Amino acid sequence: MNRNTENKLPDDEMIREACHIIEEANEKGLTLRLLGAMGIVVCCSAISKSYLDTYKKLGRLGSGNTMFTDIDFAAYSKQKKEIEKFLKNDLGFEPDMAINAFFGNKRLIYYNKVKNYSVDIFLDKLEFCHDVPFRDHGGCGRLELFDYHIPPEDLLLEKLQIHNIAYKDIADIAMLLLTHKIGNSTSSGNLNGKYIASIFSDDWGFWYDAMNNLRTVEKYIRRFVDEARFTKEQVASALDNLTNLVRLINATPKTDRWNKRAKDGIKKPWYRLVAELEKR
Asked: What's the pLDDT tens digit per position in 153-184?
């Protein structure tokens, strides 16, 4: 992520920029969907604008600091060439030649030099400590399920895959758990816990880090009421959704691959070390 915050656009303007890019891409028949914190803000605010106030209480919006320093998109590799032409020729963005040459099969970076932000495009999957695929087990694309962001369960997976989780990620997870009921299908206001459980049931390392992260999130949510970040009702709702998700994960049978890897536990590396790319 680009850490240069000088002359950055305000957060609300960055969100408008991102949505405009998505809409322009749609006109070209290209699929781009928001990842990360921006995706979560758009996802939660689509359910109710009141959740933006809650986000501010968590210190993630309106704190005087710029929350968004770049825009992260999910896309399909089959559209890579068309996306490159779209960003360069239609939008006038400048490619990061070095990074795109080295990582271009899975990640692209472009710069808006006029408005001073970068665009990061992840192809087919998010690949950090653990993988978050943009296609389901049957190979069907998941990016078309929502208009502006990846599905809420994928937004949650994106945060749960982090090995060394930070407060900002904990706050984002808490917002998703506050705003989404746990169920067995994907829809607005619902989080497909069945899909998450199926991902974890075949990947012990991802499961291990995610369960540790959920325990950490639970501790923070319980503190939020004393810190006036969540109301008592919001804490109860978020914890209820967290409990239901954990219950579903625990009840889902694990694969032979999961059980085989579980025998080694943490004696062997179970997550990928992630180095941050140096952008220009």
From this structure: 999 999 999 999 999 999 999 999 999 999 99
Q: What is the pLDDT of residue 269?
A: 97
Q: In Å, what is the CA distance from 125 to each residue of 112, 121, 122, 235?
A: 24, 10, 6, 32
Ranges of the chain whose pLDDT falls below 70: 1-7, 63-65, 277-278, 280
Residue 26 lies in a domain: yes
pLDDT at residue number 4: 53
Q: Does residue 6 belong to any structural domain of this protein?
A: no
- pTM equals 0.95
Taking residue 127's Cβ as centre, other Cβ atoms within 10 Å add up to: 17
Total count of domains within the chain: 1
Within-domain flag for 280 = no
Which of 139, 133, 127, 129 lies closest to 153, judged by CA?
Answer: 133
Q: Please identify which residue in the block is written with the tokens 């009141």.
A: 50
In a domain, 71, yes or no: yes
Place of tokens 């089959």: 78
pLDDT > 70 fraction of the chain, expressed in percent and rounded: 95
Q: Contact, 241 vs 189, CB < 8 A?
A: no
* Host domain of residue 31: 11-267
